[in-house]
Recover the amino acids of this structure.
């Protein structure tokens, strides 16, 4: 009788443990994603102030941040390693993606992450034009035990008026990030393109925008121009909880965009 009782107790404990592990794995993982073109820390008042930028990032309580226009040892910004300084000020982990040499240092994009970065890959984007080089930095971070690694990409497309300058870049980007697996993926950055543009439509063939609130408008009620986006893939595995354009017009010439998303893992 005692043996039977012990077997039943052990079975119950095992069943509860299995139920708990399945239940925890099935729960959605919520992420706060921020994309921010920091204009190398120079605000609209002409002041270089990374602490101001860091304060805005911290106030959004992000899990992942896609940064654009980041300097590393560049003369114009006092030879400061801006990403390391932002890591120190925010307490987040960082990775830098160089796009080009500039004033004795490097210029490009970066990522900040609340979770440790497992791997980072920088991919120079193709271009048929002789404009400023562009790049895409992809990092992998662990969502939680038993879940696939999240692939998070920060990028910055060409800012010229000609859409032909961006199309080779965005097509290269889409091809580079294409995958047949169901791993969680997020693409964020300054696309220098409006919603509905040809560039946006190319991205939308493989990615879904994580923005579910009305576009901000100016004092006269006209939609403001927004070129910073967060996209997710595969679409069926994500749920957009909230999104907002953070109203700060001083720290940079761009306003940060925050998206709150749930990874459900549902195929």
């Amino acid at each position: 009788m005692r043996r039977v009782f012990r077997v039943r107790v052990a079975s119950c404990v095992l069943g509860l443990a299995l139920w708990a592990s399945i239940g925890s794995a099935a729960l959605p993982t919520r992420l706060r994603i921020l994309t921010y073109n920091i204009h190398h820390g120079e605000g609209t008042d002409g002041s270089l102030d990374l602490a101001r930028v860091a304060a805005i990032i911290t106030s959004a309580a992000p899990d992942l941040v896609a940064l654009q226009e980041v300097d590393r040892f560049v003369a114009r910004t006092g030879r400061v390693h801006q990403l390391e300084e932002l890591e120190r000020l925010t307490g987040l982990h960082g990775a830098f993606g160089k796009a080009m040499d500039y004033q004795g240092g490097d210029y490009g994009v970066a990522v900040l992450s609340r979770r440790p970065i497992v791997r980072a890959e920088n991919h120079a984007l193709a271009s048929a034009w002789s404009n400023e080089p562009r790049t895409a930095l992809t990092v992998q971070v662990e969502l939680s035990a038993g879940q696939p690694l999240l692939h998070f990409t920060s990028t910055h497309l060409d800012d010229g008026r000609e859409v032909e300058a961006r199309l080779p870049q965005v097509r290269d980007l889409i091809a580079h990030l294409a995958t047949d697996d169901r791993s969680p993926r997020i693409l964020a950055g300054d696309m220098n393109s409006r919603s509905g543009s040809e560039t946006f439509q190319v991205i939308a063939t493989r990615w879904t925008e994580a923005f579910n609130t009305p576009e901000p408008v100016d004092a006269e009620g006209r939609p403001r121009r927004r070129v910073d986006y967060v996209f997710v893939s595969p679409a069926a595995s994500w749920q957009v909880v909230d999104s907002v354009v953070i109203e700060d017009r001083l720290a940079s010439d761009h306003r940060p965009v925050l998206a709150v998303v749930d990874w459900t893992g549902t195929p």
